[in-house]
Design a protein that fits this description.
Layout: E1 2-5, H1 35-45, E2 48-53, E3 56-61, H2 64-71, H3 75-78, H4 85-90, H5 99-103, H6 115-127, H7 130-134, H8 137-153, H9 158-175, H10 184-197, H11 206-209, H12 224-263, H13 268-281
Helix pairs in contact: 8-9, 10-12, 12-13
Length: 282
Amino acid sequence: MVVFSKGSSKGKYPDGPKGYPIVGVGPMIPPVNPGPTMSKWAKQYGEMMTLQLGGTRWLFLNSSRTAREILERRSGITSSRPAWPLLQGILSDGKRYIPLTLVLMGRMVLMPYDNKWRNIRKIMHQLLTAKQAETYRPFQDRESKQLLWDYLHAPDDFWRHNGRYANSVIMSVVFGKRTRADDPNVIQLFSTIDDFLGNTTPGKWLVDSFPSLANLPKPLQWWRPFAEDGYRRTIEFVSRNIRLIIVSIRNSLQNSRNRLKMELPPNASQQNSMTSLENTIS
């Protein structure tokens, strides 16, 4: 677990690996699978260690004891997040907390601790209460059976089955439809997740270590084309599913209208009610 620190260097920070001038330990962290390197440092430096990555100081909490002490008992001063110009800025357009949050695992983690974050957290808590969770049980039960079937018939692809299970539960709850591993929409979704998670490694992008680089003119921001392409593909996925929901609702309204016409005599109040609902959906 990590705490980010910026600003004054007064006070003593925990020991950590010594990096290079300006860039810190960034070149010492593998861009892929940095876990073993972090684990080795944790064993060497103990429950807490400090890493300097560019202009940002990272404090790693390497035990549950220190995590509780810092993140629970001192949450009032440790709950915010640093600036991520690429991840939360361009790649997410600062919007990883709306419907996309429900689809892509709740990326509130990137937002600073402010009123917007507190409002979104309140909404998330309403969706994840014990009472509300009971309504998700049928989706989880159905997808669990599918998961077991997938394990039996293609055990070597277990990691893909796990991803399909989690995605299909969430898609069933949010969009009202199940998904398959070979669904092009699912493949695109996993691609956007890889775009995001693959770039959360400390030091992966210079601009996230030196946020002031985001003030460069756009033509000089060499990271921007990659991030904008990832954001575009993410929005395409979400927009496509929202459009499918709208079409499904309109079709249901039309079917209900047709049944009313067949079963009941004309009624102005019913007609006005249906028209009003359709206008709301539009």
